[in-house]
Every structure is written in structure tokens, then in C-alpha cells.
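[recover] target loaded
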């Protein structure tokens, strides 16, 4: 979904195009001494701003596609790992190894290995201190990859783990892990591209001395100086709204 700020950048560009149109229509009477305010320079700045805003949209679309692909890659993980645990339990693996696999599975599923006892309502009423515990969640993509890597290492070291189902075999687990890592890296890299595109856009749009926003204000001041504060020309450009948007 497009954010309000993203549409705000596009509105600034559209308003700047209107500004150029008005200035061009003034003809020879629009003749600023400052090179950056001449119509040729304004047109070049409009082109740069349009390109920069579009670059962010393209990068954001690529980022969204990467996050969607990552979601799909990680979707089979939890049910698959549950099946791995069951396959291990059905084998002749040792109890300590099975316990290790179950422990890793709990982390992947986002569960505690053992429930934390809490004071009942009566105990709390009598002044018992509520139990404070650290979060057990390990559901970030990085942690899921880390825990799945550990699970694969555990089942790989167990000679009794020899399932007949192809998707439960170690090579298939490693293939899924590789795909998860690749999709996660793609998101990280796509996020960098988006971030850099926004930095470049903000430079073009909102630089304190050369940005589109500052140029638009300067053009308004020039038109006011030439035609007067009550002139129809100044009313034209003065009515155009530009926002100095927060960097994002």
C-alpha cells in the first residue's frame, strides 16, 4: 500500500510541473537572474525529481515482491519440522537426540519447552508477585533460519534418522534451508536498494539549498517580486502547495 508520504512526493512533483507551466507562460517577463530559477533549469530539475520518485516506486515494488517470495519460502517450515520430529520419534534414535530435536522444534514453532507456572488469582490477591519472563519468541526470519540449521545438523548426525519420505530426507531439508537463506538475503538487499533510492530522492526533492521544495519557494518569491503580492500571476503560483516532507 502506498503511504501518505509517498503520494505527497508525487504531489510535490505535480505542483512543480504546474509551477513551470505558469512561469513559461509569463514569457520574457519571467527572467530571473539566478540560473537555477530559469525555466530550462526548472525543467531539468523536474525531470530529475520525476526520475527519483519513480526509482523509489520501482525499488519498493521489488522489495514487496521479495518479501512475498520469502513468506512463501518459509511457509512450509513449521509443518515440515513437525513431521521431522515425528519421523525421528518413529525411528530408533536415542531419547536425548529426540529431546534435542523437540527442543529446536519448540523454538521454530514459537513455543516454550515447558510452561511457566503463574500465581493463581487467589495468590495474586494475597500479594504474590506476578511472574516476569523474557520473551520466548524466536520467530524472526534470522532465528528461524538459525534454528532450522541446528535441526538439520542434529538429524544429520543421527544415523537412525532414515525416513523414506523424500521431503524429510536431509538433502531436501538442506535445499529448503538454502532457498530460505536466499529469499531472506534477497529481502535484505532489496531493502538496501529502497533505502538508497529514498536517500537519492530526498536529495533531489528536499536538499536545503538545491532541492525541488526550496526551488519552488524561491520561484514564488521571484514571481512576487516581479508582479506584486496582489497580482494574478502571484496568485497562480502562490496557490500551489508544496510540502517539505519528513525523510523516510
Amino acid at each position: 500500500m502506498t503511504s501518505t508520504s509517498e503520494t505527497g512526493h508525487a504531489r510535490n512533483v505535480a505542483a512543480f510541473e504546474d509551477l513551470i507551466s505558469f512561469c513559461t507562460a509569463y514569457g520574457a517577463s519571467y527572467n530571473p537572474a539566478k540560473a537555477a530559477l530559469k525555466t530550462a533549469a526548472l525543467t531539468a530539475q523536474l525531470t530529475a525529481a520525476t526520475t527519483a520518485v519513480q526509482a523509489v516506486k520501482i525499488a519498493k515494488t521489488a522489495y514487496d515482491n521479495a518479501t512475498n517470495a520469502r513468506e512463501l519460502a518459509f511457509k512450509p517450515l513449521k509443518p515440515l519440522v513437525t513431521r521431522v520430529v515425528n519421523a525421528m520419534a518413529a525411528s530408533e534414535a536415542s531419547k536425548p537426540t529426540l529431546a534435542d530435536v523437540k527442543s529446536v522444534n519448540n523454538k521454530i514453532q514459537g513455543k516454550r519447552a515447558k510452561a511457566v507456572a503463574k500465581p493463581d488469582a487467589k495468590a495474586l490477591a494475597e500479594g504474590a508477585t506476578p511472574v516476569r519472563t523474557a520473551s520466548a519468541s524466536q520467530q524472526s526470519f534470522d532465528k528461524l533460519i538459525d534454528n532450522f540449521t541446528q535441526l538439520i545438523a542434529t538429524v544429520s548426525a543421527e544415523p537412525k534418522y532414515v525416513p523414506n519420505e523424500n521431503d524429510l530426507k536431509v538433502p531436501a531439508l538442506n535445499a529448503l534451508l538454502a532457498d530460505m537463506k536466499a529469499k531472506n538475503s534477497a529481502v535484505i538487499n532489496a531493502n538496501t536498494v529502497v533505502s538508497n533510492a529514498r536517500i537519492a530522492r530526498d536529495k533531489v526533492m528536499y536538499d536545503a539549498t538545491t532541492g525541488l521544495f526550496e526551488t519552488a519557494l524561491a520561484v514564488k518569491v521571484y514571481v512576487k517580486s516581479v508582479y506584486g503580492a496582489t497580482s494574478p500571476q502571484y496568485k497562480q503560483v502562490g496557490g500551489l502547495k508544496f510540502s517539505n516532507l519528513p525523510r523516510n
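[recover] notes: Residues 76-186 form one domain.
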